Amino acid sequence: MLPVWLLCFALWVCVHCSTSPLLLVLSLDGFWYKYRSLYKTPHLDQLATEGVQAEYLRNAYVTKTLPNHFTIATGLYEESHGIVGNAMFDPILNDTFNESSRDPKWWDNGHSLPIWVANQLHGGRSGSMMWPGGDVAIHGASAHYAQSFDASYNFSERVDRVISWFLDPREPANCVFFYYEEPDATGHEHGPLSPATGARVEQVDALVGELVAALKRAKLWDRIHLLVVSDHGMAPVTRVSALDEVLPEDSFRAYGTSPVWNILPAQGREHEVYTRLSEAASRLHFRVYRSNEIPPEYHYRSNARILPILVEAEPGWDLVLSKHADSENRTYGNHGYRPSLDWMRPMFVGRGPSLRKGHRVGPLANVHLYPLMGHLLGLPPWPSNGSLHAVRHLLQPAPSNLPLLLAAASVFLCTTVGLVALVVCGQPRNNSSQEDEEPLLLLSA
User: Fold this and answer.
1) How much is the pTM?
2) Which of 25, 96, 117, 407 is the most exposed place for a label (fewest CB within 10 A)?
């Protein structure tokens, strides 16, 4: 009877595995949503044809890389998750943060729960291929598979590692976050409308095609939800202004990166610093806010790391600390400006068994990706600034439970038949003539 039990177990495994959700989130840093209409992106276009796409993502302020990757991962605005810039100062910790900071004190504020951690708390295994924060212990654990950022790994090598995590025979991942630093680097160097950036965008699209081909070879394509996102767009920069044209060096400290700076005035000099900045704002093409006057739509007030004064350059301008900065090294593209600026808007495309086919929606706030990802993984909801209601129109209509019930019934029936057969066939046989005749008597009764 062993073959019957093996058949039952195999059937259960098939039913279970065929419905286990997989999620792969690929971030293409600095992929402005209009790149898809300006340049040739056939692989992203094919994903959109087979799945869903948003007109663009509404990202979080400041529109920088680390803050928005952590917003996508947690569903929280920057004032709530605490990564308020690629560089920042915490007056409570009396310490500074930069892009290489991995100490949990910066990332784990007690209520931010990245999807990769939530997935593991509920029995899954997560991977982070260079995603900001994925290699940091949050709620006591980083992603099970975690590769820190290393530009020496090319895209193909990263794909191979990610596929190996999904296919690991003992500890397979069911959720992986994958970061790639282009076309951001090229956009910074040459600007969003340059031929070099156009060529890079088309190369990145080809790499997306390479990833899709690898998922198909690995027999993962029919099970996986692939979300391709970005953190921000890219704006052309042609002019530069400097803070030291306005402020004495000993009157302030500035934290952040152009075009947005958090300003910490020297003790007793806040009024002086604010007044000097306000008087120069129009001439030097920037905006200045006290922290309690920052526009509410920025969701960028309620955190100690947001310092007393915020300065934000106007689009097209870089804002540097010193006018002696080498102008030959300034960027020709930048980001960080207000999210409502068209240049800052990133892209979103998704494809998978639970997502609708060929469905296009309007603008989508990136905080809503968090409940969407949790839903795709079958996780219970966790408090965030996002809403599952806002993304339900991306999902396939709820399927009938009939196929699952039939599969469960098949497993139950097969198991029952096997058990009965085991009991019946396991009875000792007696060759006496009387007992041989008893079944006939019962049948005739």
Assistant:
1) 0.86
2) 96
